[in-house]
Write a structure and sequence with these properties.
With 216 residues, the chain is of the alpha/beta class. Strands 1-2-4-3 form a four-stranded mixed sheet. Helix 4 crosses helix 6. It is globular and about 40 Å long. The chain starts with 10 loop residues before the first helix and ends in a 33-residue tail after the last helix. About 19% of the residues have low confidence.
Length: 216
């Protein structure tokens, strides 16, 4: 979950496309419920921009996610919290996909059930889910299905050439959005939080609006 091991596009590839950057207002999503500590006003604005640009409704994650910005930190997520490197955020748009990747881990921990992970693993591959769910201690970062899920969500809901994250799955972004949306529809049974995860709030079923605006 650190920036050094993410499967990302090269900075040159992404920066070359920034010249033509144009994000329509129509694709803005519900940006989530979170607090930000540390960083400059510009770095905090970068975090908000990253979460607002996607079509994923981050507000389906229960409770308030605590986001902390520290210069030189290893960017990573833990249940209910995200640590971001201030230097990464200084890269602006290049950091957006990575911020989304870390927030996507919250979706995994607080909304996915074992049966959902099984369905997702069939299209994402990987040797084990990892990220505190099952195993992963001696498995390469990119072989962890939980990391693949976070990257796939980040890319599928912002499938832009400006997204530094590369997807892993066999599905198109549209197909992955449809699959995840079908899994996260409200159900009578609430998602099961694994013992390793400390809930940030009372867990409820996900709201209907996982996707606020359909993208290509």
């Amino acid at each position: 979950m650190t920036t050094s091991t993410h499967k990302i596009r090269t900075a040159a590839t992404v920066l070359a496309s920034l010249v033509a950057l144009a994000v329509p207002a129509a694709v803005h999503a519900v940006g989530g419920v979170y607090s930000i500590t540390g960083g400059t006003s510009g770095q905090q604005a970068t975090v908000r921009a990253a979460l607002n640009v996607t079509t994923f409704n981050w507000s389906c994650v229960p409770g308030t996610v605590r986001i902390t910005i520290v210069a030189g930190a290893d960017t990573q997520a833990t249940p209910g919290a995200i640590l971001l490197d201030a230097n990464l955020l200084d890269a602006g748009t290049f950091s957006w996909g990575i911020v989304q990747h870390e927030y996507a881990h919250q979706v995994d921990w607080y909304l996915l059930r074992p049966d959902m992970r099984t369905a997702l693993a069939k299209v994402l591959g990987g040797s084990t889910w990892g990220v505190g769910i099952t195993g992963g201690a001696n498995v390469a970062h990119d072989s962890l299905t939980g990391e693949r899920f976070a990257s796939e969500l980040a890319y599928a809901f912002w499938p832009s050439t400006n997204n530094a994250i590369e997807p892993f799955g066999k599905l198109t972004p549209k197909a992955f959005r449809a699959l995840l949306g079908s899994l996260l529809r409200p159900r009578t049974a609430a998602p099961t939080i694994v013992a390793a995860v400390t809930p940030i709030a009372a867990t409820a079923a996900a709201p209907a609006a996982i996707i606020t605006t359909e993208a290509k």
